[in-house]
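Hey,
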Amino acid sequence: MRQKQHAPHTAPPVICGKKRIPFAWFLAGAIMALFAFAAAGCEQRPSEQTAQTQPQSFPVLEALDGERLQEAKQMTDRCCVRLDVAGEEAEYYGSGVVWDERDGRLIIATAGHLLKEGEVLRVVFYDGTVTPGRTVGISASLDVGFVEAEWPETPAKADTDAEIPALVSLHQRRFDTLDAYSPLFVMASTPDGCADLILDASLLERAWYREEFGSDVMILSGSAQEGASGAGVFDGCGNFVGLVLGGTQGQTAVLSMEQVNQAGAEIYGSLRGTEDYEAE
């Protein structure tokens, strides 16, 4: 997290008389009339039909089928954002990832402490698109917070999926098999960019309790840079591994993919699905 120096929604009734009509005839006539009325009522003017749009649908990043680090680095920027935040005394910034989607709004996951200290001014995406952001909630048990942002166009208008943000890819089996030899990298932001600071890393500890974060964290090699709070950590296939919380003395503390999912369920009431183990 680093301070910035400047801030760059009727037909008449049928009378049967005294003669009784068999109930079956009456019922059949009523049903036919009802269908005719419904068919007439469902007809809409063209303008009314156009106004009814389908919910937006952003793609999940399609991860690689094998570890290709350089290619993974080039494609995961679509899942990343920079968050500009107004603090009590100055503006500062951090990073985040496109976690999920609700009713056409993108859900950004980031470090909770980034949101506790100020109000989100803007969300900056990988292609330079800038939108307002609104803090939705901060987990009570983990240092994770969520921000909602509106993408200016519907995904259907994009010529290809590559022109719009993508939700991070979650893969349980690959996450479970991470070890010290697994290539990892952090996608952090600079004051004037988004996901433009890429830091190589490796796994040192899968779960180590750190009192300052109040939970177990993953420990990666390498120091977290300024503005890396909330940055996404990815594996060599482009799958999401976790969120950066902070770092010191050549090590970086990260909340795992599973913990971020837990925090999301706390705020939104549901877990995101993951690509799981392949059938034997």
